[in-house]
Amino acid sequence: MDKDISVKELANELKGLSIQEMVIEMTALIRSGALEIGSKLPSVRALAEELGMSPASVSSVWSTLKKNNLISGSGRNGVWISGNNPAPRPLRFENVGNFGKKTKVDLTYASPDPDLLPNLDNALLSATKSHDLNSYRRELITPELKHIVAQRWPYDAEAYIATNGGFDALQATISSLIQPGTWVAVEDPTSARILDLVENIGARVISIECDEQGPTPYALTQALEHKVSAFIYQPRVNSVTGVNVTKERLKVLEPLVADIPLVIEDDGIGDISATPTCTFAHVYPDKVVHIRTYSKSLGPDLRLAVLSAPKSIAKSIQAYRNFGASWTSRLLQNAAAYLLNDPQVIERLSLMRACYRQRRDWLTQALEKRNIAYEGENGFSVWIPVPSEQFALVTLAVHGYAVFAGSRFMTIPKQPHIRVTTSLLKEEMVDALADVIQMCFDVE
């Protein structure tokens, strides 16, 4: 076909098909080359009129093709064939950016310092002696891990499931419990992976603005006008801003949460935080899924998180997991149980908290000396408002620093921000880093 695809020719290919059949046919035409990359599609309205169907139906087809990275564009500029690989991708997570060859210090991912993590030798050796090691029997969580986790859980949960990390837990929960097309209230800003997961299933995100105490009552009240199907927030420390959710704020939000069918609490920092976790489960035990990851406290290669939920919800989540791995390695679960029960590891966790706090304080104190504002008080990073994200990223990259743009963590970017990771900082690099951050404000 020509670069401008004829509305009549395309309509002939799609006439009489359902929305799902149109998606399949369009995908086949693009993959075969019949619709060439770079070709411009007719407008939604023109194609809908030719097909004798509503513009909303054609728009739904286009939305699916966009999610699968087959077409791109919108509005007056038109829509174009942009790819022939229909695999959906986590765009925010994969869009790391090109920081050039001068990068000396990578401060993008808020990851734990490998030098601070507990030694796994004894834990793994102990786990090899598990009585049911290598059994094909599916179980939600090993008795050893459940015993120690339940003692430290913020509430008495009906069911626990061990998963292959926090985002595995989130994916299983979101994919099994949230329906495409429904509205999901998500605190803003939040983890890029959460936004990718919600959008991937075809749900729609409503941003819930946060302040120094967590999600605001006003924003959640406004969201309820859309009859949201779920509310996702971080019940301890926001991984982007470092803001601690307060128990007082949750108390204010409780009446609003009563009208939301599902609450997903993502504790992504876990035991490394000195701040206790909050939960709505004390009031709404029948609708809360509480997730805690152990990647930052025990190590990412343990690939372990635990979620709790009512038995009925846990059953739905596990049914979804049965399409894939189905269960989490007993070796890794019982290694984690060993670590969580080891007095030396418990003492080490206390030292790790102090160390991460010190590293964050180094940067925030350096920023204060330069009269640079920042937000939050905890976690592995510092959230800094800047005049221009692009200028800040380029300025830092030129001087060898890689950081993430704040827009990566928002659905509707408002004031520009950068997120600077502090968990891997060395004291001797802090002043130089703060000097470069100060340069980010020299926008003409």
UniProtKB/TrEMBL annotation:
Listed Pfam families: Aminotran_1_2, GntR
InterPro entries, per the entry: Aminotransferase_I/II_large, HTH_trans_reg/aminotransferase, PyrdxlP-dep_Trfase, PyrdxlP-dep_Trfase_major, Tscrpt_reg_HTH_GntR, WH-like_DNA-bd_sf, WH_DNA-bd_sf
Stored PANTHER family: HTH-TYPE TRANSCRIPTIONAL REGULATORY PROTEIN GABR
Entry keyword set: Aminotransferase, DNA-binding, Pyridoxal phosphate, Transcription, Transcription regulation, Transferase
Annotated protein name in UniProt: Aminotransferase class I/II-fold pyridoxal phosphate-dependent enzyme
Domain HTH gntR-type: 16-84
Similarity-based family: In the C-terminal section; belongs to the class-I pyridoxal-phosphate-dependent aminotransferase family.
Natural source organism: Vibrio eleionomae
Molecular function GO labels: DNA binding; DNA-binding transcription factor activity; pyridoxal phosphate binding; transaminase activity
Residues making up the signal peptide according to the UniProt record: none
PROSITE patterns the UniProt entry points to: HTH_GNTR
